[in-house]
UniProtKB/TrEMBL annotation:
<dbReference type="InterPro" id="IPR027417">
    <property type="entry name" value="P-loop_NTPase"/>
</dbReference>
<dbReference type="InterPro" id="IPR003593">
    <property type="entry name" value="AAA+_ATPase"/>
</dbReference>
<dbReference type="Pfam" id="PF17912">
    <property type="entry name" value="OB_MalK"/>
</dbReference>
<dbReference type="InterPro" id="IPR040582">
    <property type="entry name" value="OB_MalK-like"/>
</dbReference>
<dbReference type="InterPro" id="IPR015853">
    <property type="entry name" value="ABC_transpr_FbpC"/>
</dbReference>
<keyword id="KW-0547">Nucleotide-binding</keyword>
<dbReference type="GO" id="GO:0015408">
    <property type="term" value="F:ABC-type ferric iron transporter activity"/>
</dbReference>
<comment type="similarity">
    <text>Belongs to the ABC transporter superfamily.</text>
</comment>
<feature type="domain" description="ABC transporter">
    <location>
        <begin position="4"/>
        <end position="241"/>
    </location>
</feature>
<dbReference type="GO" id="GO:0016887">
    <property type="term" value="F:ATP hydrolysis activity"/>
</dbReference>
<dbReference type="InterPro" id="IPR012340">
    <property type="entry name" value="NA-bd_OB-fold"/>
</dbReference>
<dbReference type="InterPro" id="IPR003439">
    <property type="entry name" value="ABC_transporter-like_ATP-bd"/>
</dbReference>
<dbReference type="Pfam" id="PF00005">
    <property type="entry name" value="ABC_tran"/>
</dbReference>
<keyword id="KW-0813">Transport</keyword>
<keyword id="KW-1003">Cell membrane</keyword>
<dbReference type="GO" id="GO:0005524">
    <property type="term" value="F:ATP binding"/>
</dbReference>
<dbReference type="GO" id="GO:0055052">
    <property type="term" value="C:ATP-binding cassette (ABC) transporter complex, substrate-binding subunit-containing"/>
</dbReference>
């Protein structure tokens, strides 16, 4: 296992980048703790696979360094970094049996036969392929082959890090849940440093100790699932995390009050002169329908079983509200109020830290 340090790291696919916009990966300075599980989360093209490939050695960064436990490995080949990587699409040896595919990384490093047998059986049980151990990989389904790839990545116990690049794309939904659970159990058991790339917030939030949210080539927040939900540091985090995502409304801030189109909204903290493109952000969970407050029009109500999603509108802008399953949504509920403690203030998309009111 290794502590991974990203020191002044950035990358451009252009030969002579002239500005920050030319960089697919904007400058990063982060320490990722030895033994923690991280998820790189963001939309397609945000830079997460670029970062993963730099960590693995498949890509040389345009600037900066990457260190494992303080040792500079920026120019070290992949084979010398002692990492295991699982890709989005399965990479298996078709002419080998499942058993031999799983055993290959251990045999390649001269492990003893009894240890190899024990690890292969353990991993086969984890990925649900005990019955196929003596079958050739050729002819297996795509999801079965991807399970072999996952197993081969996990079979070694001595790696510095385990890297996963959207590894469950071809896996059926039920097996996705099973394999995520097994990956989490493996992490708790052996304490590997794990980095998991995904665009799926459910995968990220259920797998990782810390989620690294990326947007436009930049890390906009690193935090626990609770931190990302309660205190999104960037409007993209508020929008991307949660279902539905955070409501954002243009506002003017004056001390402990926000004003949205002349309507006063209480804030849980006090703010000085907030400049720029100012917005308030409120999770649908912290908004409720009322007979007073911000006037809205309810467009429809979606009953999802454990709660209702109220799709409303304020001055032509969509606004989502989470209502309890048994809550009555009567014709008199024409306004919405927000929990002041959970109203966030943003300037130019970044969260502003207020002072205790």
């Amino acid at each position: 296992m290794a502590k991974i340090t990203l020191d002044n790291l950035a990358h451009s696919y252009l030969p002579n980048p002239a500005s920050e916009d030319d960089y697919a990966l904007k400058e990063l300075n982060h320490d990722w703790v030895d033994g923690e599980a991280y998820a790189l989360l963001g939309a397609s093209g945000c830079g997460k696979s670029t970062l993963l490939n730099i960590i693995s050695g498949l890509l040389q960064p345009s600037q900066g360094r990457i260190l494992f436990d303080g040792q500079d490995v920026t120019h070290a080949p992949t084979a010398e970094r002692n990492i295991a990587q699982v890709f989005q699409f399965p990479v298996v040896y078709d002419t080998m049996t499942v058993r031999d595919n799983l055993a290959f990384p251990l045999r390649n490093r001269g492990a003893k036969a009894d240890y190899i047998a024990q690890r292969v059986n353990s991993i086969a049980q984890m990925i649900g392929m005990e019955a196929e151990l003596d079958r050739k990989a050729r002819g297996l389904t795509a999801d079965a082959k991807q399970k072999i790839s996952l197993g081969r990545g996990m079979v070694r116990e001595d790696v510095n890090a385990l890297l996963f690049d959207e590894p469950l794309t071809v896996i059926d939904p039920h097996m996705k849940w099973e394999l995520r659970t097994q990956l989490k159990a493996l992490h708790h058991q052996f304490g590997h440093t794990m980095i998991y790339v995904t665009h799926d917030q459910t995968e990220a939030l259920t797998f990782a100790d810390k989620v690294v949210v990326m947007h436009g080539g930049r890390v906009v927040q690193i935090g626990t699932p609770q931190e990302l939900f309660e205190r999104p540091e960037h409007t993209f985090v508020g929008y991307f995390i949660g279902s539905p995502g955070m409501n954002l409304l243009p506002a003017r801030i004056d001390g402990t009050k926000a004003y949205v189109d002349g309507n006063e909204i209480a804030l849980g903290r006090a703010y000085g002169g907030v400049q720029g493109n100012v917005q308030i952000g409120i999770r649908p969970e912290f908004a409720r329908l009322s007979d007073e407050g911000l006037p809205v029009k309810v467009r429809r109500v979606e009953d999802v079983g454990r709660h209702k999603i109220v799709r409303a509108e304020f001055m032509g802008q969509a606004l989502n509200i989470i209502a309890e399953e048994g809550e009555d949504i009567g014709a008199d509920k024409t306004c919405v109020v927000f929990d002041p403690a959970h109203v966030n203030v943003y300037a130019d998309d970044w969260r502003v830290n207020g002072e205790a009111a």
